[in-house]
Amino acid sequence: GESVGLHLPTLSVQEGDNSIINCAYSNSASDYFIWYKQESGKGPQFIIDIRSNMDKRQGQRVTVLLNKTVKHLSLQIAATQPGDSAVYFCAESPTQGGSEKLVFGKGTKLTVNP
Amino acid sequence: GAGVSQTPSNKVTEKGKYVELRCDPISGHTALYWYRQSLGQGPEFLIYFQGTGAADDSGLPNDRFFAVRPEGSVSTLKIQRTERGDSAVYLCASSRQRARNEQFFGPGTRLTVL
Fold first, then answer.
1. Which of A32, A61, B87, B110 fits a disulfide with B100 by CB distance 3.0 to 4.6 angstroms?
2. Tens digit of pLDDT for each residue in B27-86?
3. Cβ(A92)–Cβ(A102) under 8 Å?
4. Which of residues 58-87 of A touch B (CB under 8 A)?
């Protein structure tokens, strides 16, 4: 199996810049994907979701792109603010078995410098 | 409105002891999930309830772990004969129904087994 380390991928940006966080998912049968933001000491907070019949979805300051061919998901944050500093997780929902469980990626730590 | 709440927020116990962790989902949410998050990792699925029944318990690591939701609302995660490796943050989430709805997470219970 894949080894998992304690060091998260990190991304450091300047306030006002755009941020792009990438995620590779594993299950080609997954049909629902979500991005979560997690601040220290808190539970994950929903940012945006996308279903497999779409390749792009926009929210407020955020855009999610889905490339099913290469099983890649990205989160774009426009005009990044210090309050965006957190760990970001992508999650996929496999369709098998009827379960609604989410399978989370490893996370990316975003640091926004003022 | 009230979000998902979890009690206690922190639990310190000794190896071999029994612990119970409680989750109060958002009112009206029929689906409830338990996840476990180790330091530096994404949440890992444990069990999913639809109403009172466990629809998917494939993530429970062994028979020391058990969860109930007797009235289809509050859920309790029970861990027998705790081990040091059980130390983690235990997260609860709820959602309105099946069919790929957003999961709302609670703040988690940090369990430390000495």
1. A32
2. 999 999 999 999 989 999 999 999 999 989 999 999 999 999 999 999 999 999 999 999
3. yes
4. none
